[in-house]
Amino acid sequence: MRSETLVPIILILVVGILVIAPLVKIVLSTLTVEGLDAWQAVLASKMSENLWWRPLWNTILLGIGVAAGCILMGGFLAWLVVLTDVPAPKTLGLLATLPFMIPSFAAALAWGALFRNSRLGGSVGFFEANGYIVPDWLAWGLLPTLIVLIAHYYSLAFTVISAALSSVGADLVEAAQVAGAKRSRIFFGIILPVVTPALIAAASLTFAGAVSNFAAPALLGLPVRMQTLSTRLFGMIETGQTERGFVIALLLIIVSASFLWLGERLVAGRKSYVTVTGKGGRTKRFPLGKWRWPLFTVAVLMCALTTFLPAVILTASSFALQNGSLFSNWTTHFWIGEGGTDMAQGQAGIFRNPVLIEALWMTLKLAVTVAFTTMALGLALAHTIARNKGSVLATVLGQVSFTPILIPSIAFAAAYIALFGAPIGPLPSLYGTFLLLVLAASAHLLPYAVQSGRSVLGQISADIEESARLTGAGFFRRMGAIIMPLAIRGLLAGALLVFVKIVRDLSLVVLLFTSTSPVLSMLAYRYAAEGFMQFANAITMVILVLCVVATLLAHRLQNRVQKWKSA
Asked: Which residue intervals define the domain ABC transmembrane type-1 in the entry (predicted)?
């Protein structure tokens, strides 16, 4: 069988096993006798208020609130950077993208270090320790979770909206100015209609991110019994009520996918706005006048409060004996201290803790393995889709490979438990194994890998490969001798971004974590849940450093690959 026929068949089988099979299995698991009882318990029983309706309400409130907050913050920063003469727009743009590098649980831990009150006992945060009364609504629950998630996801909205604003040609704005239109008329009549699809897309993405987030609601909401669908799903699986957990996972998928689909439909209905005509490549910048520096200051403060302040607080907390004295009485015990002393109930510092060392090694091994696995698979899928464009094969592969983007991480993990949590014929159960983590993470990040593969292939002329094919070179020969060498920098940049997602993602691994497969994000969450905040903050800083270094390397590689961006 020729490679041109064999490769697509292999890819269909691989994508089917990675994406379709877990989803089919979790659906079938809820159609058994126990599964049907779970549907009834979740949706139509005396327990359904706590199992479904109240978590659903909290989840939708969070999603809508986060989407609105991200649109306001991200849109404001995008407007400043793209359409005004604000000082240092490139620097400001870079600062606006940094919060998404930071794990959401980092901001949640930093919030707790400042605002934790005495309601639950144990150590309190900085403000209450220094005599300020922190009300429960500010320390725990919906409001702090909302603030933390907005601070995490607004950079995603900034990226989407700024790209749309960059397409607003100067000729449109200047024509309106010549006609005597005021700034308000230009904004509402030209700019806002043009960027409306981007606003809808940003709202959909941030909504989906918020409803699927586990870390922030778990750290700030569970202590006061504020449940979301993601935390309720975790609780069901954790306590052995797997059928109910699978039902909630399917419902969470439906909620998240529905809003993403609605956003896509709204965007699709506005395709008549065409601004890139080839006649005008400039972007019109409006003078801010006396507001230039004040608005720049506000923007820098926003970025600093959501990026640098959490990092400073977490660093200080990892050295401080108590949160009440964050910047005094520091100790290195939580980093390199020996065990068996009176401090921290006798636990050693994180770099003397064999569990932490194993978790660090496991995290790096997982992230590197998934990064290269997904990029290789993503490139093969992107190549097959591009070379068979318009065919049924390309359509099926494209739609299936992008399906995971509709599925929240924790629900995807539940689907993998449903499929691989028990033996399949002669195959043993994979639960608790490194292989299951690799499979689940690779499948969930497949859309990003395929998109990176498409981006890389877009910079390589198809004529080169076609010439090699005419000389008799097969698929694997062409990939190894032509595509891979030309695409290596772009692939490495994409692999580094996948690496970052794995290192900082808690929602995906929280259900797949076991003592035999520890990872840093789960270890940090466990320490925080048990009240060892200094250890949790120290581990989170290790994660943060890994993410920042990998992201900066990825951007550097992308800039070298796409030199036209700096032209």
From this structure: 56-263, 360-554
